[in-house]
Amino acid sequence: MSLVNTDVALPFRHGGVEPSGAPARSMPVGAPSRSDDPSTAGGAASQLFQQAAGSAITRDLASVVGSPSRMAITNDLAVVSGQPSQMASSLSSSSTSNVSQLRITEIFYSLQGETSRVGLPTVFIRLTGCPLRCTYCDTAYAFTGGQNMSMSEILGQVAGYKPHYVTVTGGEPLAQKNCALLLSALCDAGYEVSLETGGALDIGVVDARVMRVVDIKTPASGEVEKNRWENLELLTAHDEIKFVLCDEADYQWAKQLMMQHHLADKCPVLFSPAHGTLNATLLAEWILRDRLPVRLQVQLHKLLWNNTPGH
């Protein structure tokens, strides 16, 4: 079992046109200032953090890919080996806002590309690192690098966009212990908050005010054995389930699972074709043929910006 004793942590994507006076939609986390100068809003779409020596997640951390349910990581990373429900700190957000840190790849303002909130202007906070390696992963740039930020620094950058919706994503955000604190702090600040999680870690640590979007890994993802099935019992009508499907075998598998566990009775279910792998029209025809009570989603941000980081 690997141990990492630094603040380096484990890990969606989507851009819009900023309102007048709003900061550039995508900026390096920890930038010293925001400017209304239109020239600062251009440049590289993502303006990702430099992955300097020492900032990358270590090989020991990457080794948990084989067994994320058993990994134990100290400090600001989740301890998920024994009692994951104890992951959230008992300290108040006010006492930890300047002490607690998270590893952040990027913070940007864009349109939500998925879920029932698709198309809505949203601030995205992408946490660095992920214990999974899905075959269709489209955010591998967030596996390593990033920058440590305090809670107050994160909240300050989010506030600069004056958003209504905020999404915390990755990678796998819940692999960082302080993710739970961040989610609660965002809710306390008055935002409508959603979490995008890969489904391998305990979602019970998440504030009840947060909409939890739980990805159930299919066989073609290469990570089906990492699904934490106990999460299904924790879902509420406020949450959403997502299946990323690579082929008809994935579709049949997801359909059977959905029926077996009555998932559509628990919360909205999303079927998404793996971009560039499964034809969306074909998936739509299967859904109509079988009269499934699911929502088809096609990742709006990829249609608009072709999966460019920072969108």
The CA-CA distance between the termini, in Å, is 36 Å
One letter per element, helices H and strands E, the order comes to EHHEEEHEHEEEHHEHEH
Q: How many runs of DSSP E, i.e. beta strands?
A: 10
Give the CATH H-level superfamily: Aldolase class I
- Under CATH at level 1, the class stands as Alpha Beta
What's the architecture in CATH terms?
Alpha-Beta Barrel
Rg, Cα atoms, Å = 18 Å
Mean pLDDT: 77
Could you list the spans in which at least 5 consecutive residues all have pLDDT below 50?
Answer: 1-96
- As a percent range, the share of strand residues is 15-25%
Tally of separate domains: 1
Q: What proportion of the residues is helical, as a percent range?
A: 10-25%
Number of helices: 8
Structural class determined from secondary elements: alpha/beta
| CATH fold assignment | TIM Barrel
Biggest sheet architecture: 10 strands, mixed
Shape: globular
